[in-house]
């Protein structure tokens, strides 16, 4: 057995646009349904969703033969949380609330074994094929994708240093928290917010790092894809379900 290629990371390196969906429902059946729908990536959230490790494993297994690569968002930039997520076989992580280059470097270090980082070694984990991938500790790092999330004014102020941090594979803009940090809670289409998002994109492009985004607004998705965002989540599983159910019920009132 060998360490699997990270298709998502490889696509970003090729500058290939990746269209994704946010997953919040904590269900293996939902992950299977949307993971086979043709999306390039599926974000399984643990920060704002009731997802714990056993449920994540089930979702990874459900997605295994689908089109979508799994990206997991830990609840925090915490090396213990990151270690546990890596050990169940996750290769791509979106680290929330990164505001400085030091925080970005800490996130990278949490995904790498010594001497390159601080990840604890387990050679019998699911990630290591339960011990069957003999070179896992040496080979794992090359296939791990570290994405850092910019969601505050401080993060934007430090975006150049963050984007240029070694080991950071991409930068993701969290529009809801960023809007709040800029004084426009609930209004991510505010011109000041949109201009700030453009500033983050420009810094990422200058650094040669792909930028990501999440919005359920189709026009906004197309705007930022055309502008150069390379991995964009165009909706959430709960949002898609709510909209479809409400629309169906409305047609029969």
Give me the secondary-structure topology:
Layout lengths: L6 H7 L4 E6 L4 H8 L5 E5 L7 H11 L5 E5 L5 H9 L4 E4 L5 H10 L25 H4 L5 E6 L2 H5 L1 H5 L6 E4 L1 H7 L9 H17 L3 E4 L3 H10 L3 E6 H15 L2
Parallel strand pairs: 1-2, 1-8, 2-3, 4-5, 5-6, 6-7, 7-8
Helix pairs in contact: 2-3, 4-5
Structural notes for this entry:
The chain is α/β, with parallel strands linked by helices. The chain has one domain (about 5-250): TIM Barrel. The chain is built from 12 helices and 8 strands. It has helices at about 5-15, 30-35, 55-65, 80-85, 100-110, 135-140, 155, 160-165, 175-180, 190-205, 220-225, 235-250; strands at about 20-25, 40-45, 70-75, 90-95, 145-150, 170-175, 210-215, 230-235. It has an 8-stranded parallel β-sheet. Helix 2 packs parallel to helix 3 and helix 4 (about 80-85) packs parallel to helix 5 (about 100-110). The chain is globular and about 55 Å long. The termini are far apart. The mean pLDDT is about 100.
């Amino acid at each position: 057995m060998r360490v699997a290629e990270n298709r998502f990371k490889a696509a970003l390196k090729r500058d290939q646009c990746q269209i994704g969906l946010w997953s919040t429902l904590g269900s293996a059946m939902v992950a299977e349904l949307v993971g086979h729908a043709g999306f390039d990536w599926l974000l399984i959230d643990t920060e704002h969703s009731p997802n714990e490790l056993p449920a994540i494993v089930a979702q990874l297994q459900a997605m295994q033969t689908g089109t979508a690569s799994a990206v997991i968002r830990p609840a925090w930039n915490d090396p213990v949380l990151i270690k546990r997520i890596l050990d169940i076989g996750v290769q791509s992580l979106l680290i929330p609330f990164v505001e400085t280059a030091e925080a970005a470097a800490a996130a990278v270090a949490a995904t790498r074994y010594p001497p390159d980082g601080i990840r604890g070694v387990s050679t019998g984990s699911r990630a290591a094929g339960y011990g069957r991938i003999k070179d896992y500790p040496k080979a794992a790092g090359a296939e791990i994708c570290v994405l850092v999330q910019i969601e505050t004014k401080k993060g934007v102020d430090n975006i150049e240093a963050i984007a240029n941090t070694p080991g950071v594979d991409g930068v993701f803009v969290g529009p809801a928290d960023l809007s709040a940090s800029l004084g426009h809670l609930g209004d991510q289409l505010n011109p000041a917010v949109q201009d700030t998002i453009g500033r983050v994109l420009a810094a990422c492009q200058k650094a040669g790092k792909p930028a990501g985004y999440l919005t359920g607004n189709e026009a906004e998705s197309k705007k930022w894809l055309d502008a150069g965002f390379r991995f964009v989540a165009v909706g959430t599983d709960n949002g898609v379900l709510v909209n479809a159910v409400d629309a169906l019920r409305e047609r029969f009132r």
